[in-house]
Write a structure and sequence with these properties.
With about 210 residues, the chain is an alpha/beta fold. The chain has eight helices and five strands.
């Protein structure tokens, strides 16, 4: 695939602060007269949203869960992400494959080779240009998860699960330092916005220089 747009993914354990910054980043990019398509995973297409409903609410075998995440992703890539990047639009995704490594791999201990195989199958040629990893200690994420928010299957998991998911995220950030930016999400929101301003400006400058 010959993409001309940029692909940015938002990652982090539940309650880390991803959603707080997505609209801000979309706005930043639009100010440069760039079209932005936003999507989320699991989901992003009608079929993907149906799969999301199942996978977030039903008990199932771990491998079924992983396969459904990648099935929804395959559809999202085909219907939304790849066409947008080919048109030259930028794509923002609330979670992508790093979530599968963190949650199904780290959290649930599915062998990483199986996840690598699925990744190769579903998007061998495509990786995000920038992955923003919102990182906070577990206790902070827990406190931030609104007590009134209805918690899905994952949000009801125990501390060990999220600890392992966070560790896997950080391991991947160290493995792929060129695309990951680890953001200390305990910092105040205005400070994080300043950092996001810088990161997006750099990405735009890189694209214009290419
Ligand atoms: P996520 O999308 O990662 O699950 P949210 O963006 O919904 O997390 O954030 C969870 C809660 O934490 C929200 O109430 C949000 O206002 C709050 N929050 C997010 N970032 C910060 C921050 N840097 N400092 C303080 N509170 C924050
Ligand atoms: P999210 O959209 O962050 O939930 P919410 O709308 O409640 O903030 O993500 C849904 C959940 O799905 C989240 O707990 C992480 C999980 N997930 C996986 O386990 N594997 C994956 O591959 C993806 C994309 C998400």
């Amino acid at each position: 695939m010959k993409q001309s747009g940029k692909f940015i993914t938002f990652e982090g354990i539940d309650g880390a602060g991803k959603s707080t910054h997505i609209a801000y980043v979309i706005d930043l990019i639009k100010r440069h007269d760039i079209n932005v398509v936003s999507t989320r995973e699991p989901g992003g297409t009608p079929l993907g949203e149906s799969l999301r409903d199942l996978v977030l609410n039903e008990k199932m075998h771990l491998e079924t869960e992983a396969l459904l995440m990648f099935a929804a992703r395959r559809e999202n890539l085909a219907q939304v992400i790849e066409p947008a990047l080919l048109r030259g639009d930028w794509v923002i995704s609330d979670r992508f494959t790093d979530s599968s490594f963190a949650y199904q791999g780290g959290g649930r201990k599915l062998a990483l080779e199986k996840l690598n195989a699925l990744e190769q199958w579903v998007h061998a040629e495509l990786q995000p240009d920038l992955t923003l990893l919102f990182d906070v200690p577990l206790e902070v994420a827990r406190e931030r998860l609104d007590a009134t928010r209805v918690q899905d299957k994952f949000e009801q998991e125990k501390a060990d699960f999220f600890d392992a998911a966070r560790t896997e995220y950080l391991r991947r950030a160290a493995e792929f330092p060129n695309r990951f930016q680890v953001i200390d999400s305990t910092r105040p929101i205005p400070e994080i916005r300043q950092l996001l301003d810088r990161l997006i400006s750099q990405l735009i400058a890189r694209q214009r220089a290419a």
